[in-house]
Amino acid sequence: MTASEHGNFRKAAATLGTRESTIRGGVRDLEDRLGASLFHRHSGGIRLTVAGERYFAMLAKFSSTSRWCQGRSRAHA
């Protein structure tokens, strides 16, 4: 998600304190597993494909649901 927020693998790597090659490799592996490209790559950076937009929207929804569930379980503990 950091890469999509920055629109650039290099800036995402700097934010996460890792190497650009690590980010690129992780994204490539994920795309291979999903069977879809998540990013359009161009000389000015990257932008999400339609599949990427759907994937990250699903992740955001999952993350939100997960936080809600954790809060509910703590409230009932």
From TrEMBL:
Segments forming domain HTH lysR-type: 1-49
Entry keyword annotation includes DNA-binding: yes
Pfam families in the cross-refs: HTH_1
SUPFAM superfamilies according to UniProt: Winged helix' DNA-binding domain (SSF46785)
Signal peptide from the UniProt entry: none
InterPro entries: LysR_HTH_N, WH-like_DNA-bd_sf, WH_DNA-bd_sf
Keywords: DNA-binding, Transcription, Transcription regulation
Similarity remark: Belongs to the LysR transcriptional regulatory family.
Name of this protein: LysR family transcriptional regulator
